[in-house]
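Dear all,

This email documents one entry for the complex benchmark we are building for the journal club exercise. For each entry we list the sequence lines for every component of the assembly. Then comes the predicted three-dimensional structure of the complex as a token string, followed by one or two observations. Please use this as the template for your own entries, and keep the labels exactly as they appear.
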Amino acid sequence: MTTEQAETAEATPRYQELRHSVRLLLSNPVSAAGAAGVLLLLLTAALAPYIAPYDPLAINLQGRFLDPSGEHLFGTDHLGRDVFSRVVWGSRVSLTVGLITLIEASVLGTIVGLVAGYKGGWVDSLVMRITDVFLAFPSIILALAVAAALGRGLTSVMMALGITWWPLYARLIRGQTLSVREEQYIEGARLSGAGGIRIMFKHILPNCMAAIIVQISMDVGFTILAAASMGFLGIGAQHPSPEWGLQCASGAKYLVYQWWISTFPGLAIFLSVISFNLLGDGLRDVLDPRLRRG
Amino acid sequence: MTKTILEIRDLRTYFYTYAGVVKALEGVNLRVNEGDIFGIVGETGCGKSVTALSILRLVPNPGRIIGGEIIFEGRDILKLSEEEMRREIRGKGMAATFQDPSTFLSPSHTIGEHLKDIIKANADDPRGLKGRELNERIISTLAKVNLPDPERVADQYPHELSGGMRQRSMIATGTSGRPSLFIADEATTFLDVTIGAQILRLFQEMNRVDGTTIILITHNLGIISEICNRVAVMYAGQVAETCTTEALFKKPLHPYTVGLLASIPLIDREADELEEIPGTIPNLIHPPEGCRFHPRCKHVMEVCRREVPTICEVSQGHEVACHLFNGEVRSDG
Amino acid sequence: MGDPLISIRDVKKYFPIRGGLFQSTVDNVHAVDGVSFDIERGETLGLVGESGCGKSTLSRCVMRLVEPTSGEITYNGTEISEIPRKEYWRRAQMVFQDPRSSLNPRLTIGYSVGEPLIVRGVGAEEVRSRVTEFLGIVGMNPEHFSRYPHEFSGGQRQRLLVSKALITDPEFIVLDEPTSSLDVSVQAKILNLLNRLKAERSITYLFVSHDLSVIKHMCDRVVVMYVGKVMEIAPKDEIFGNTLHPYTRLLIDSIPNPGAKEERTMMGRESIELPSNIDLPMGCRFSPRCPHASEECTRAQPELVEVEPGHFVACHMYGK
Amino acid sequence: MKLGQYVTKRLLQFVFVLLGTSIILFTVSHVIPADPVRAAAGPKATPAELEAIRVKLGFDKPLPVQYVIYVTNLLHGDLGRSVVTLRPVIFDLAERLPATLELSVFSLAITVIFGITLGIYSAKNRNRLGDHAIRFLSLGGISMPSFWLALLFQMVFFLRLGWLPGGGRLSSGMVPPAHLTGLYVLDSLLTGNLATLRDALWHMIGPAVAQSAIGIASVIRMMRAGMLEEMTKDYVTMFRSAGVRERTVVYKYVLKNSLVPVITLIGVMFGSILGGSFIIEQVFQWPGVGSYGTQALLNLDFQPIMSITLVMSFMYSFSNLVVDVVYVYLNPKVSYE
């Protein structure tokens, strides 16, 4: 009775599948470029003290408004600070804000979405109505109001963005949970005698991970943009932080003659975000082609 | 001598996937006579649906027809341009209906809109056909597939119809151009037996009344026995056996056909245990050398592992691709 | 025959349809509408019908996956809602229709098959040895323990699911269309396996299917359902040899089959649909499609009556 | 459920959302700040002013009572007073709302028109040069910080090239058209003042493009992906097998089916346009609600911030209401749930 043993055509253990995904991701030059950009950003942030030639906060009033040159790659700003060093150090700020915000939002959103989707009924309705209310604010505006209430500074920005972002994750995970819940193996798990917690975390959550990873990778870019916008509006990072949005704002006054002060930090934001977006697109195609989004 | 409407010679269709080249069809030969209800039967992955799409030249990406001939009404359609194919062959010459009508109809258009464009595409004078006349054509097309209340169906969206009515509507989209060849790919698989039986009767009626030749693709041997007069059994991208339906059930030759017939529970047969065919269908990226069935065959010989069997006509109209019958021409008995 | 293993009495399951501004119940889907029959110890009982007849809902009621609206189901004489779920699911198990969606793609075979033991606190070592033992019983290799479902074909997955259902040594298994998504040659292997297991382990089966040929091959007795109601119950030979109910007749005649080329009187040309479970016909549910329908059939629902020993039918043409 | 019934239900939901919004904003303004009185009164308030605010907003009372006072004030149009302009917020908003409305509706129109047409073009010409260019630009569009794009615009088209004005709604010296709606384009059209119309439109180009870049890019991406996905659907095979022209299949069937999900995105895009107005209006000196908000943020002028948030969420919810109704109207498959 072992007639079917010989026929496992594609006997690939789990890690091989992962390796396959990674290879597939990197085989697309566009996603590979995104991955490289993200890696570069991570390295820059990690090695900032070694890369930056100057102290990003050191004021030198004699050396104000210097043109980009070999000595000052991106020139100096209105206080004589080296723009290149500030851009390098700024990567730490942006990455921190982006990642912390998304960890807050995805952990909270996942738990809420999982429970709402699995329990259904009034729990689900209540959660959905609450997310409706949060999503009734145009993007970023609620974050601005919350940050204003919390007071200026990066901590408020991270709190404010987390508060406005979790409903998106709650909805995503709820949707995933609803579809996974319909799978026969959930009924099978109930018949095994598995309880709600086991079903949610052992059976459903692993099947949502692909969606969560894709969403996070696509959202890092957005959170970096949002945090920079808040910095630009003066509600986020405060002087003399090398935060990119703040740098753009302080350079805006000198746009006519000292274009470099706000152009380079802006470019840094742009390149970081585009890298995350490319990586996110690639991950989505590899991990879950059904998750198409705007 | 009956006239041949469709002849397929050495058809090869490959799919160029990431994992490798799937040789979905590897040398398919078929001949369908005018007025036949011709069955193609086989299990998952045997290539029966790819055959249907190849005949229509609608093999989806990453698939391609890479060789062979498909001679339809005397012309090799693989040599036609896409425009000729659309204007002269599809719709008017041949048309099809598919397995799952809920995806083969556009969700946000009514059945009437579907038919309007199809009828116009196949009309000799599309501009002259409008208003009342077009409307009448739509209704009569729907009435022909025995849909009750065709006026109402024309105004309904696919999701508002039941499975049986959707399948009938889709058959209507195929028949509206009055094709001489109609391909039905698993048209009753998603339907309940009693509803499916009605659809089969509709095919018989199309065949009898309009003289439409029908190619019926199915995995269900019962359906073949019910309405087909000739049948081809496919296995792993090749035709194993072609014969009349009667011969298929009374005197199957190919070991795969024999095994398949013995493995199904039939309503008028008592059996304590069903026959099993050992092993499973092969991977078509690396198909077995020689005869593709040899790893599972009870009668496997040395030659089967090496050489692809040629087709031999064992008796009048009964062809089999198996080394057991190679060179041997049997008289009846 | 002794006491039945499971006895189903007047079970109803309605699903509310909500609508309107405040999501109030506007109507009900009468999925199962007053069904009674027994499942005898050691038999294979076939439950046959077309989509919407309620066979799946009913089998889920028996498995306590769905709570019936009313009626009672007893197991060994005890009302099943009084048996603790874990205990009940140790004795009664189920194999589902679609083996592709019945195994969690993210979990190993070892976990999926062994889960009934794991949730009952069995130690890892014992789980492992039991799972490998049962993998062997269904013809799979012990090495498959740490593999993932995507590495297996449909037929193999169904074997794995059978081994999962067996692992707590149940005496009763519901088989819900266990082969209808498999190829015919694979179906033969699974059906043979199920029959062998039944003989070896004296299990009682409730075999749910829409395919009468499979039912005939597998079952001792057959229950025919139509739109939430039982139409006919009889031993297999009676159902096929002495068909009484016109619906059963239609069902048998609809099977595409080499032996039945002649015209069938039962079927009209026009597309006829199954009635919905929402707006039900007044009298016999089959009366709109029935060629023998009389005025009485459109008025009153026929009772299920025993016309011959063990042969029950719900039709006005019989009984009294 | 009938469409009318759906609309009623959706309106009820709208009211519910507004209620929820007020609760969130109440929390933000009354619960989150360390010293809500100080927050409401502004950093430079005198002890007397602080006391007046405390009494007026009932800060000495329990939270539910405070909420009732808060809602009552809202319903009376009392949005507090700006500590910068020293005027009631409602007056400031009334003055500035038309400018924002005009710009954001214009931006939305650009988003829809360019997003959809370029998306279709891109999908139809898949993997050709035009498609690659559009994909590259749309990827840039969603990755570009809007303030940076606005600054680049200013630098290139105003400072260097002088093609576009530096900011404002009209050139200096140009007299605004007679106040009918407050929307300059509409007013100048109604009064037949073509020179003003041209000037007003000319001033809108810069901010509108900067403001709609993300939206256009998102719509392109979704439209393209949607079209390409629809093209692989089974019904396309069915139409081809019946001999229907490719053009008819694509522009009639594929297009309609792929437009359906884009409609929901348009609502979201209106939200992102409104959110972007803070930055864009600031950079282009557009005298609207957004630049008012930016000023308020800089001065932590709390009452205007809260009011703007409220007004914008109202506009956004309302636009989503419209979008949902259109969606249901266009998509027969929705069961109005």
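Observations: The mean pLDDT of chain D is 88. The CA atoms of residues 162 and 329 of chain D lie 46 Å apart.
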